[in-house]
Amino acid sequence: MASRSDQRSSPEKSGTQWKGWVLLALVAASLAVVLQNSQEVTFNLLFLNTSAPLILLLLIFTLVGVAIGYFAPMVRRGRDKNGKN
Prior knowledge:
This protein has three helices and two strands. 68% of the residues lie in helices and 14% in strands. β1 and β2 form a beta hairpin.
C-alpha cells in the first residue's frame, strides 16, 4: 500500500509548474509577433545598411535575447566565485 507522501505531488514539482506555462505563453506570444511581421524592412547596424524580412530580424534578435538571458547569470556566477564584484 502506498503511503500518503507518495500520493501527493511534491512541493518542488507543483511550485515550478507555473514556470512552464509562463514560458509557453511567452514563446506563443513571440511566435505570433514574428509570424505577423513578415514585411521587408531596412536595417542599419553601425556601417551595415541592408534590407531583410522583419521576421528574420525578429527571430535573430529574439535568439540574441535568449542567449543573453541564459549566459548572463553564468558569467555573473563565475565572477562571484572568483571574488570579483
